[in-house]
Amino acid sequence: EEWLQKSKTKPNGKKPPAEEKKQYLEPEFTKIRVVDFDLKELVVLPREIDLNEWLASNTTTFFNLINLQYSTISEFCTGDTCQAMTAYNTIYYWYDERGKKTKCTAPQYVDFVMSLCQKLVTDEEIFPTKYGKEFPNSFESLVKKICRYLFHVLAHLYWAHFKETVALDLQGHLNTLYAHFIVFVREFNLVDPKETCIMDDLSEILCTPAPPPASTPAPSTPASAPSPSSQNHVTER
Ligand SMILES: [Zn+2]
């Protein structure tokens, strides 16, 4: 508790999350998309492909791409700038192998995530690459674990490093990666909606297929802002 209070008044001039403007929602940025076709076609299980093989190859690809995207701004994500792994009103804590909750900075948290993912996706017993080798019973739960952690990294990128991403002109890549990832995890129920809801406003905009150019634009719906009570509440995970 004491530590939370401290982080709210850190002297870098940052306002608490509720008052901060969500730059990533500005139309200027959300209209930029590398692809404008229906992402769902990319994620549905192709006929003749084994479900586990499909989950394994996609999860490995998302791990590599999200790791790469984070690396573009990693020099700005330090123990000073990001004293905790935050996204919107949420602070993510790392739980070690014995289940002990640990405070860590965002770069430490991302390092834990990436090391764990690397270890899992390269483990032949968990992500078998040899023909005929069986997936373990724990495969699906491990894929869910990886996807949940990768979502935390994406959320942190938007919440803490969108400005730097824009400065590098990489927001189009980030948006495409994010939309593809969300459509994928939704298709196979890999991340609890309670985790992803903090980014639902962005997901709504990015994951809805763009209307065909000739048709009249659909009436715009106001962006659904979380209720004031949820804005002021710091969630711990
Ligand atoms: Zn950071």
UniProtKB/TrEMBL annotation:
<dbReference type="Pfam" id="PF03637">
    <property type="entry name" value="Mob1_phocein"/>
</dbReference>
<feature type="binding site">
    <location>
        <position position="77"/>
    </location>
    <ligand>
        <name>Zn(2+)</name>
    </ligand>
</feature>
<feature type="binding site">
    <location>
        <position position="161"/>
    </location>
    <ligand>
        <name>Zn(2+)</name>
    </ligand>
</feature>
<dbReference type="InterPro" id="IPR005301">
    <property type="entry name" value="MOB_kinase_act_fam"/>
</dbReference>
<keyword id="KW-0862">Zinc</keyword>
<feature type="region of interest" description="Disordered">
    <location>
        <begin position="209"/>
        <end position="237"/>
    </location>
</feature>
<keyword id="KW-0479">Metal-binding</keyword>
<feature type="region of interest" description="Disordered">
    <location>
        <begin position="1"/>
        <end position="21"/>
    </location>
</feature>
<feature type="binding site">
    <location>
        <position position="156"/>
    </location>
    <ligand>
        <name>Zn(2+)</name>
    </ligand>
</feature>
<dbReference type="InterPro" id="IPR036703">
    <property type="entry name" value="MOB_kinase_act_sf"/>
</dbReference>
<feature type="binding site">
    <location>
        <position position="82"/>
    </location>
    <ligand>
        <name>Zn(2+)</name>
    </ligand>
</feature>
<feature type="compositionally biased region" description="Low complexity">
    <location>
        <begin position="221"/>
        <end position="230"/>
    </location>
</feature>
<protein>
    <recommendedName>
        <fullName>MOB kinase activator 2a</fullName>
    </recommendedName>
</protein>
<feature type="compositionally biased region" description="Pro residues">
    <location>
        <begin position="209"/>
        <end position="220"/>
    </location>
</feature>
